Amino acid sequence: MKVVKLDDIIGSDQHIDGGNWESRRLILKKDGMGYSVHDTVIKAGTETHIWYKNHLESVYCIEGEGEVETVKDGKIWPIKANELYALDEHDEHYLRANKGVDMRMVCVFNPAITGREVHDEDGAYKLVDDE
Ligand code: 9YT
Question: Which domains, from first to last, does the chain contain?
Answer without folding.
Answer: 20-110 (2.60.120.10)
